[in-house]
Structures are given as C-alpha cells and as structure tokens.
Amino acid sequence: MKIVTFFVSVLTGIAFPSCNIWLTNVLSSLARKPKLLSSLHRLLSLWNIVGHSEHHERNLEKERINNAVPTQRLYQKLDIWNLAVIDNIDFKQKTFSFGNIYDTTRNSSHATLRMAFQSVIPNYLATCQEELITLEEDNRIFGMNFTMQEALDGFQSILENLLDFRSTNEGNLEYNQNFDVEIIKKAILEKFEHGCKGPSPHVVILEPGDNPNSDQAILGAATMYKADFNLQETAYLDIVADEAIYRRYGLLNLARRLGVQFLDKFEAAVDYRMTSRVLDFLWVAVGVSINIFTKRKNINLSEIMNENTDTNIFLKIWYLYYQWAGIWKAYQIGMRIGNHNLQRDALAAASPLFPSAGKSNYAVAIAQHLSTLTKYPKLNEILQHVGAFRIPKNIDDDGSENQKPVCFGFDETLETFGVHFIKQTSASLKSVDSHQYTR
C-alpha cells in the first residue's frame, strides 16, 4: 500500500503540477540538499523503494563480520617484520536499562585489542641470524652520549643564528626578533636525517582476547599470535603492550617460552599534543632568554655549570631545564622524522632523570627497552628502518613530492587510528555483550 501511495503521488504531481502534492515537494526538497540525503535514504527505505533496505544492509554487515578471517590479511613473506600489539579496550553501555532512568550504573565490557603492524625490511636483515649479546657491567647503555651532545649543540647553533646578535656603536646589544616556534622547528627538522624511508606499515586488526584482568588472560592473548603468524618454537615475535597491561602483567618471563620480546610499554597521555606544544614554547622561551642574558653578561654557556660559587643559581636551574628539555625535544623530533637512533640515544641520555624524580615505572620501562636493543642488535637495526609508523607524504598542487613524510610512534598510531576507530565503529551498539564486541 505504501508503494502504491507513493507512485500515485508522483504521477499526480507530474500530471497536475499546480496541485503542489506534498510528497513530491518533500522529496525534491530532500534531493536538493546534500545534508538531507541520509534522511531521503531512510524515507525510501521505509517505503521499501530502494533495492537494499537498511535491514538487508545490516544483515549483510553481520554476515561479513561472521565470515571475516583477519589472519588472511596478514603478510607471510620473508622480508616482513611483524610488530604485535596488545592493548586493553573498555566499553560502557550506551543507554540505560528500560524503566530505570535514574540508575547511573551502566554495564561495561572489557577486551584485549590485538593488532599487527607489518613492515617491509631489507632482505639482508630478513635472512641474517639473530645475534644475542650478553649484557655485562661494562656495557654503557645509559647517560649522555655523542649523538645527544651533537643534537644539543645543533639546537644552540640554530638559536644563535636566528637571534643574530650584534653590537651597536653605542655598545647596545641588538638581536633579531622576527622568528617564532615554527621557524625554529623547521630549521631543526632540516638538520636531522629522516628515517622510515620505506612504505607505510600494513595494519591488521586481529581477533581480540579476553578481559585483560589477569596474567593468564594477557599470556593467552600473546599466545594467540603464535597461531596467527605460524611461529616456530625458535622464532621471535616483538610485542608492545599498553601501560596498564605492562604494569599488571608481572609474569613477563613466561612470555619467553613464546620467543617474545617486550620492547616497551605504551604511555597513555590524554593531552600529549597539547602538552608537547606547551613544552615547545617553554623550551624556546628559556633558550632565547638564556642566550640573551649570557650575551649581555659575557658568560659562556660552557661555564655556567662549571662555576663552583653560589652565583647565578637561577641561571643554572633554567640552563638545566634548557638541556633536559632539549633532550626531550630531540626525542620528539626523532619520533616525528622516524630517526630511531636519535630516539634511542635521547632515551639513554634522559634515563638518569626518571629514577632521581621517583618515576620508577618510566625507569623500568626505559631500562627494559634499552637493554633489549643492546641485547638484540638485529632488532636495533630493524628499528632504524621501520622504527615508527610512516604517514605517506603529501603531494603539492604542482605535482612535486618534495614534502617529507611525518611519522607517528606506534603507541600514538594505536590510540589515534586503532582504538579510536574501533570505538567509533562499535558506538552504535547498545549491548555490552562480550561476544558481540568480539565479532
């Protein structure tokens, strides 16, 4: 009856346009406004006019989900480096239970997100045997190193060139003020070599694990990778885990039976980009102020910390901040350009700061990360090629590809594209049934 009414209304509107039949006017209004096309589609679906109704599309979606085999999307080539990810993901029921609108307690569901980043590595790395180095007391893993000292000297040289100090005939000090944070950042980026020059990693979301509330559940999620990648007993698989899982999972040694290396823990930073922006401004402001002050007082930067007197206490404090923040700046730059060596040496230089500040979790994670890279030199060399998630470069309007790509850390990629995408996809689900989320 709905279809008959619809066609009669359309034919009447065509035959007698002066009658202004409301249905045809509504349809023409919806068709002229792109924002209302979804409303037009729902209206046509309600009248069963479109070939594929929403009900049929939902059934097709469920069928595709049930028939999906994520492991078929995994590359099984020899020149592929697999980085497995374990992350905890939490869902809360979207609506309250019927008839109890004042009940603020909603059901929740928890699962272990499992993803894989697959990157192409050079053939010589794929075919060479894994070398194992025994760590000894004389292995110098932590502390300031040549790479960081060179980076800090480069930062200082960039600031001096931009300030362009000069003295007037009257003896006054003048300097350039026509630059900002973005100009400094651009000059720094040009100074360092970009890494991750290969294609972007292939990302696969695999079947999730159980609620990560126990060691056994987390170990079970790691064990599932053994079947996904068809790992042999002597094979290695690099796994990274979320901060909460890393803290909760105290039986890390059990994973060695799987040939697992825990590279690092992920840091859950809610406002990481905003915090980084603020620290950038502070570092630039402090660096510029120190350069202006020392130039006016004729103090060499190398002599600030060498003074044994109690003079210039505040200058020493801010100079230390300038140095430590410079190390953090180098690490951030290394992550954005995919320079693994810069990131590794920045962590090594900053490592003494965390135990002295009482940040034991950070200290343990960095010690685990740096010791793993030292113990497995092949892994360290692999990360020089694929140590970050490479965002494809943009093509300018003139067709040239002169813009270098930007890289994300794997943890940042996971939170930006992985967990966020999954939560958006499942936002329409009103149930928190664990089986439904697993599908």
UniProtKB/TrEMBL annotation:
Protein name (Swiss-Prot/TrEMBL): Uncharacterized protein
Protein's organism: Rhizophagus irregularis (strain DAOM 197198w)
Lineage summary: Eukaryota, Fungi, Fungi incertae sedis, Mucoromycota, Glomeromycotina
